[in-house]
Amino acid sequence: MKIYIAGPMTGIPKYNRPAFHFEAMRLASEGHVVLNPATLPDGLSKPEYMDICCAMLRCSDAVFMLRGWEKSDGAVAEHALAKTIGLEIITECREATK
Questions:
Q1: Would you say 62 and 90 are in contact if contact means Cβ atoms under 8 Å apart?
Q2: Residue 4: what are its φ and ψ, rounded to 5°?
Q3: What's the angle, vertex CA 53, arms to CA 47 and CA 58, rounded to 5?
Q4: 89: helix, strand or coil
C-alpha cells in the first residue's frame, strides 16, 4: 500500500522530521511505499509545500496522521482531502477509518 504521512511541522523543533522519519521507516519495514513530506528541502513557501504534498497524497492509498495533526492547518487540509477522495485514514494509534 502507498501511504502518505501527514502531521504537524511548523513551530516544532526540527519541523517534527524525526517523527515523520520514524514512521516512514516503520511503515516501509511493513512493506509499504511511503510518501514522506519531511524529505522535501527547506526553502519553499507554504503554498508550494502544500501543492507538492497534495500531489503526493493523491498518489496514495492511505494517509497516516501523526499525533497532533489536528493542530496543523496543513495536516487538517490533507485529512480533508484524503477523506474527500476516499483514502484510508490511519491515526498514530492505528485506528483506520474511511
A1: yes
A2: -95, 140
A3: 125
A4: strand
Candidates 78, 20, 82, 17; CA nearest to 52 is 78
Task: Report residue 1 as a C-alpha cell.
Answer: 500500500
Cα–Cα distance between 44 and 50 in angstroms, integer? 10
86: domain CATH number?
3.40.50.450
Tell me, what amino acid is at 7? G
- Domain range spanning residue 14? 2-97
Least confident span in 12-16, 81-85, 90-94? 90-94
Task: Work out the pLDDT band at 94, boundaries 50, 70, 90.
Answer: low
Q: How many domains does the chain have?
A: 1
Backbone angles phi, psi at 5, to 5 degrees: -100, 130
